[in-house]
Amino acid sequence: MIPALYLDHIKQNPNEPNDLIFPTWSPQTSLDFMAKNSISTSILSFAHAALDDSSLCQDINIYAHNLRLQYPTKFGFFATIPSITVASLPEVLASIKFCCEKLNPDGFTLFTSYDGKYLGHEMFRPVWEELNRVSAVVFIHPIANSLSPQSLENPSLIPPLVDFTHEMTRTACSLIYSNTSSTYPKLKIILSHAGGTLPYISTSIANMTFDACISVKTPEQFMKEASSFYTDLAGSSYSGPVGYIERWLGPARTTYGSDFPFPIESTMVEELEFLDVCVYKNGVEGEAVLRKTALELFPRLKAQIDEAQVTKEKSLIENLSASRGEGDIAFSNAV
Fold this sequence. Notes:
Number of helices: 16
Strand content: 5-15%
Order of helices and strands: HHEHEHEEEHEHHEHHHEHEHHHHH
Oligomer: single chain
Largest sheet: 7 strands, parallel
């Protein structure tokens, strides 16, 4: 999502770093895209930049919460928290507490690094402890590492196209080798964009770090923890990534992701068409990518959809009973 309040913030603070060109977005453009492509629900996230301003984060979260109240079966949201530094930890923890107590988000967005540190760094321990305490879904989105030089010479190769996949892999490995992913078992961590390059090189990392005596984790331990993640297929619904994801995680830990509204619509439609063919080739198990996995990840959403379905069925029965002139007796018997 690209809330208007964030665009206003950018205009009022032109000196803040921002290298993205934002497409036009509104709740209605999302709803239109969903309707055209048979998408029943979208989980909205603010995944453009780490924000230092905790008040701005809270405003974005309240905006997303109100949007979900307006469209309870159409939208969910991941909460946005302030940039994580040693100094900001009290604000970050307060933000998580506020969201859990007041807004009931479907999860929280974290970026792959803050202040040059990947998410397995000890600085993040208090954050992981709190997120584990509330059994949070954590959506990790790649961002450029502030301490890594952007050295791509060709202007066509913007960082999101190349660097972000490696940033995702680095932070995933950081979580594994720091024992973060094994220490906090209540977390459900989603590595966006097909997990970066982890599906391709996880076996090599597991074996080579152990063989070189760099890691005390056996290859089996590494692979077990690597397969504990979830992933989405945003920008990745093509034969290469999907094939690796199938072998790495399987449908039960994979969800569809559109990355809307950043790719042009024809690209997203092409990805959806490929995914449909791939999913249905794998039968009922493959179909989990499109619905079942997400409903298991987001119990609030599942309950909301189930409630809406019950209400719809009751309404149909009432209308049928009324048309037959049977009134309340027929309805109570049918129910």
